[in-house]
Structures are given as C-alpha cells and as structure tokens.
Amino acid sequence: EKGGYPHYMLKEIMEQPRVLFETYTGLASSRELENAAKLLSNAEKIFVTGAGTSYHAGLVFAYYMARIAKRPVIPFISSEYLAYRDMDHSNSVLVAISQSGETIDTLQAVRSFKSSGGRVIAVSNVIGSTIPREADVTVYTRAGPEIGVAATKTFLTQVLALTGMALTLAQYNGSMTQNEYRKAMDTLKNAGHAASAGIDRSIRAVELLASSLRSKGNIYVLGRGLGVALAYEAALKIKEVSYIHAEAYPAGESKHGPIALVEDGFPVIFVGVPPREELHEKLQSNVMEMKARGASTIVVGVSGYDDLKGVDFYIDVGNYDEILAPYAVVPPFQLLAYKLAVMLNRDPDKPRNLAKTVTVE
Ligand code: F6R
Questions:
Q1: Low-confidence stretches of the chain (pLDDT beneath 70)
Q2: How far is the CA of 52 from the centre of ligand 1 (A)?
Q3: Ligand 1 centroid to 255 CA: how many Å?
Q4: Residue 83 has what pLDDT?
Q5: pLDDT tens across 80-104, in order?
Q6: What is the pTM of this model?
Q7: What does the record give as the active site (predicted)?
Q8: CA 100 to ligand 1 centroid distance, Å
C-alpha cells in the first residue's frame, strides 16, 4: 500500500505530479473556484486562516491575492482567532484551510466568523468533513488520503486550489484580462510537471545536502516574497520529521536579530523564487552577510540564481514563473526533511508527539 516505497511520506511526495493534475482537472470541471471568487469579490475584508502547513498555504494565497488580484488579505494562525472575534464581519469572508477539515482551532475560527455575520470559504481535502459542512462554499483539493503525519501532497494541492481562486477573482475584478487569465490557468495545469522536474532535478543533490546537514543542530531557511511562505513550510517539515531545529524568517530580517546566532558552519538555506529582477540583488546581499559570518550557504531555487556569489551548494529546480515556482521548489525541501529523518533513524511517517489531526484546543 506504500506503492513500493519504504514510507508513506516518500510515496506521498512522489505522487505529487499526479495528484496536482487531479486537483487541477477536478477544479476545472466544477464551479468551486467561481463560487469562491464570487464571494470574495463581494467582500469588504478578506481573512485567511489555518494551522501549520495549511497556514503556510494561506500565506501563499495572501501573496498571490495582493500581487495578482490586487486585494489585501489578512492572514492569521487559526488558534489566534480570538483577536478578530468581537468585530462585525457581515462584509468579511474567511478562507479557512484545513486538509482534514477537522482541526479544532480552524473550526473555532470558522464558527467565530459565522457568528459575527461572516461568510466562509473552506479549502479542504476531505469531502463532508466538519469545516466544509459549516462553510458557505468549499473548494476541494482532491489529493486523496494522506497517511504520513507530515503534510506533503496536501500542501501543494492547497496552493494550487488557492492560486486558482486568486486568478479567478483577478479575472472577475478586472486585474487580469480574460486572455491573461486563460494563460495563467493553462500554466497552472502544468503544476504536476513542475513538481516532477523539481523532484528529478534535486533528488541526488538532496542526498548530499542531507548528509552534510544531518549533524547540525540548527538550520535557517530564508526567503523573500513568495519564498517566505515556502521557507516557513520547509523549516516546519525539517523540524517535525528530523527533529533538527530549523527556523524560517524573511531574509531581510537577519540584521534585526537572528544573524547573532550565525557562526562558522551554520547552515543557511535560501529559497530562490521569481521575480528574479526584483529579488536577485537583495538575495545576493543576504547571502554575503551570512557568508561573512562563516555560514555554510545553500540555495534551492529556480534557474537564474546560479550566478549568486558566495553560495556553497546550489540546487537549480528549473526555469519557472511566479505561478509555477512553488511546485518545483517545495519538493526538494520535502525530500530533504525525509532524507534527514531516515538518516537520523527517525520515523518520518510518525513523528514523536504529533497527531495527524488535532481535535483538542
Ligand atoms: C505539518 C502538518 C500540520 C497540519 C496542521 C493542520 O506537516 O501536517 O502542521 O498542517 O495540523 O492540519 P489540517 O490541514 O488538517 O487542518
């Protein structure tokens, strides 16, 4: 049942090329994105929430909503819903992301918004689960069952569904022409190909990288723009299955504190995403400031970051635009977390202290 793989986590990483295509075709043949975008276009305020990996998908959504649909979105971690409780939400829409559809914190956020007049769009993988049942509209990710405790395929399928939602809204509100929208959706159809290339182009390099990181006590994962959310997700995956302390933050923050920890050999992984014109120069200075403290610098990125100076190890996942980059960039990090766990004799499918679905507050 593990499809010939030693662990569910690896099986689920490797099936991303296929499930992403299923997510896409499922959405293309339903009205879910249109129904969600309709609600969003009438909203005065838009919030997005989730826990853990689902929250990271929410950050990707907030990024695309601002950049593509020109709509600001307020992201919050679902256990922090109390901050927004005593407000009139009659013109608000909450996008609630939950793979299982059962996470109690996310469910509480949904109930709280509904009771103050808000409308809810659920993004979930489980048909008929509690959060979709209580939502006004549900967008299903159609990733199939995920057995490994760590979310892998469900993350990228959430990202795909949320990107589709942002694009559909952008077309409704005129931020994108019909033609631009068609082109972007056609691009999104290739998410599975990007995932497959990301896996193929990194699988050997990740093995090398994992052997050099296995003895480390700390890892920083830094990004800018879209890369921030992907860095958070990479760090979460590394820590939960390998138990190596990994921390992510926006690369520009180094000098505001975290660089104090960096000494000889401290590993810093940079996430390189489009738009290169905007980010390359800034990332270059972030690499240099780390290098100057003796950090061991690694870049996992789309093509075009290979000329960065001061980089010790580079994984080029291929040439992808802003829409496709996540599908190529994320799998190498999932594989890295998996490899580290296996090398350190930790069970990647059942990390200690964790449950797949958290139903107590
Ligand atoms: C991390 C992980 C968790 C879940 C979180 C939310 O790999 O699996 O962080 O993402 O518990 O779960 P759902 O999406 O089911 O609400």
A1: none
A2: 5
A3: 31
A4: 97
A5: 999 999 899 999 999 999 999 999 9
A6: 0.98
A7: 356
A8: 8
Cβ of residue 150 lying under 6 Å from some atom of ligand 1: yes
Q: Is the CB of 77 under 6 A from ligand 1?
A: no
Whole-number pLDDT of residue 216: 98
Quick one: three-class SS letters along the chain?
CCCCCCCHHHHHHHCHHHHHHHHHHHHHCCCHHHHHHHHHHHCCEEEEEECHHHHHHHHHHHHHHHHCCCCCCEEEEHHHHHHHCCCCCCCEEEEEEECCCCCHHHHHHHHHHHHCCCEEEEEECCCCCHHHHHCCEEEECCCCCCCCCCCCHHHHHHHHHHHHHHHHHHHHCCCCCHHHHHHHHHHHCCHHHHHHHHHHHHHHHHHHHHHHHCCCCEEEEEECCHHHHHHHHHHHHHHHHHCCEEEEEEHHHHHHCHHHHCCCCCEEEEEECCCHHHHHHHHHHHHHHHHCCCCEEEEEECCCCCCCCCCCEEEECCCCCCCCHHHHHHHHHHHHHHHHHHHCCCCCCCCCCCCCCCCCC
45 is catalytic: no
